Hints:
The complex is a heterodimer of chains A (413) and B (310).
Chain A: H1 2-16, H2 19-51, E1 54-60, H3 65-75, E2 79-83, H4 88-95, E3 101-106, H5 108-112, E4 118-120, H6 128-131, H7 136-146, H8 151-158, H9 175-182, H10 187-207, H11 209-219, H12 223-227, H13 232-266, H14 270-274, H15 278-301, H16 312-318, H17 323-333, H18 338-345, H19 350-360, H20 366-394, H21 404-412
Parallel strand pairs in A: 1-2, 1-3
Antiparallel strand pairs in A: 3-4
Helix pairs in contact in A: 1-13, 2-13, 10-13, 10-15, 10-19, 11-13, 11-15, 13-15, 15-19, 15-20, 17-19, 18-19
Chain B: E1 3-14, E2 17-28, E3 32-36, H1 43-50, E4 58-63, E5 76-79, H2 91-101, H3 106-119, H4 135-147, E6 153-157, H5 165-180, E7 184-189, H6 192-198, E8 201-206, E9 209-215, H7 216-223, E10 226-231, H8 236-240, E11 245-251, E12 254-259, H9 265-270, E13 280-285, H10 288-296, H11 303-309
Parallel strand pairs in B: 3-7, 3-8, 5-6, 6-7
Antiparallel strand pairs in B: 1-2, 1-4, 8-9, 10-12, 10-13, 11-12
Amino acid sequence: MRNSMKVAKWEIKRNMKNKTFLIGLFLTPILIVAFMFIGSLFNDDSEDLTTEQVTVLVNDQLNTYDSLEETINQTALNLELKKTDISEGDAQDALIGSENTAYIFIDQRALEQGIVPVYTSEEINPYFMDQIQVFETPLKSIQLENLGLTDEQLVMISSNISFEKVVSGDRDSGTENNSEESSGPPLEKIIPGIFAGFVMLSIVFTGMAIFQSASQEKKDKIAEIILSSLTPGELMNGKIIGYFVLGLIQTVVSIAILLPAAIWKIDFPFMEYLFVPELALYLFIAILGYLLFAAIFVGVGATMADISTAGNFQGFVMMLPFATFIFIGPVLGDPSGLWAQVGTYIPFTSPGVLLLRLVLLDHWPWLEIIIALAILLVSIVLFMKLAGKIFKVGILLYGKNASVKEIWKWIRA
Amino acid sequence: MEVMLTVEGLEKSFKDKKVLKGISFEVRKGEIMAILGPNGAGKSTTIRNIMGIMYPDKGSVTFHQHNGKGIPREKIGYLPEERGLYKNVNVMDILLYLADLKDYPLHKAKERALMYLKKFDLEGKEKISVEELSKGMGQKVQFISSIIHEPELLILDEPFSGLDPVSQELFKEEIRSLADNGTAILLSSHQMNLVEEMCDRLFMIQRGQKVIYGTLNDVKTEYANFKCTIRGLNNRHELENIPEVVRVEDKGESSILYLEKDVDPGNWLKQLPDKINIHELNINRISLHEIFIDIATDKNLMKEGSEVLA
């Protein structure tokens, strides 16, 4: 164990001094933040456009001005309303050379044909024509009033017809219905769930570097020198621990950069929802997930001469963490369905699917959770053992990739 | 001399091929013991079995002065045949890491690292990255890494391969001085001249079997008969008729006469026929190099002798 810690310390130190790792360490979260901002930059632009003030001159012959003004105040649209007596012909002349100005003519045509002529300057807020649609409602009501309808009739006509769905039978069986009613899982579950998911992704992805690292000793031909000081098992465990810590460092750095940006940008009290009892279980699942993949990566990594020469088998193994993504759709659709359960019991997808389900489900299926955790733990022990066997032989196999047949032989040895 | 390491009856098979067939020897404190043999003879396999990198099918490896179980890794320095260093780290970091793995105090390791870097003409290189080192410099750093923790037993697998003559000399001197200071050294090499100059005892191995084992002098008296090289054109038949000549080899204008085992060179010279044409003559023992080539190519020039001991 002491030797493993030395290896772990070395792996951490080596990576922390490595420019590539450091750039990745900071660049990943900075890129995420950058994309957040680039996204909001576009939003700002569009907001600017919609908020550009337009002067609207109304030639009102139906006494609607007050209700129009009221509508604008309610919707907070950036329109400046003014009265005018100008004629349609003069309006066209007056608009030449002006910008963000419009003339609206509300007269009998609006009542009879439902047409309101609008004359705008050449340069105008592109959203203007959408914005003035809000005048439809007051004008419509004047139109209806003119027909001599009672208030009651007015209400009935102006209200929309909606379709209400009522499902018969057991309420619980209708999960869709359920989720509609509970309006999604509570924040105390989502926030720690996202956090744990982030931690897991972060350490698993950093852990993928184990792949590289396991073949590093072979590539640099230092394996025998190292193994003259410690056992292959110690070296392997050291790497697993080292990359776990590196993953945590990546997580902490990412969070340190992302969280302030997120809090500032989204303006939401994350912290209150983050530190809840559920977080402990989430993080436990995340760590189990890491250990499983770390064992697989370190074992398979030791069978390759170099990451660039990885064969089909190695490439396939490397894709294992992404298997979880297959289940995301079905689990979101039905967190207690067959797919969700299958995903929970497959060790490779179990951590991700379990996290997702726990976030989505109101009532945790404890039996399933316990069985899944047990499967996960057994798999970890099993894969660690297999990885140890493969690592022991593979680490000394210089300059070539091991075939699946060879790996099988080492496992059986 | 105190025995540091005993190897007894080592056997190892890869698939169906037996690569070690009962190897036994010992390494003593303060001596340089050489394992010699052609490629594929089993030298590195023997060493890997000693280092616990492989496990023998049969036989035992005993480290004396060590009470615990397993291999006293912190007391052994090892320079493998296939060797290298992590590429993207600096020289001092890797030396300190390897010393740390041997449980050697870091401040002492740092001192010794600087001392050895200076000794090997690498002064001021401790901060540069390993990948910037030339091959020879890298070899030197690897060598330093194997001795930085003051090992009691030093195992060097082909320490001279890829070194220029100047560096070879440096290594040779350092290895000799380590032995003089009490380190037990086991080395394997192809460079016979170097081995001949520095080793105290040797173990020659062919196809996983012992061929020769003993001190350099013993081996030379035992196996290295005298040979006489004569430059000048002579009739082969006449040369073969000279008493105590076992075999004659022609090489252009010179002939090599292999003599019988117990020949007395002085007396033998006196009875050379007068008619022999001699431009140049020298008489010496067959070198280790020749014994080695002989064994490696299965000529079995010294077959009689080897059979006696094998």
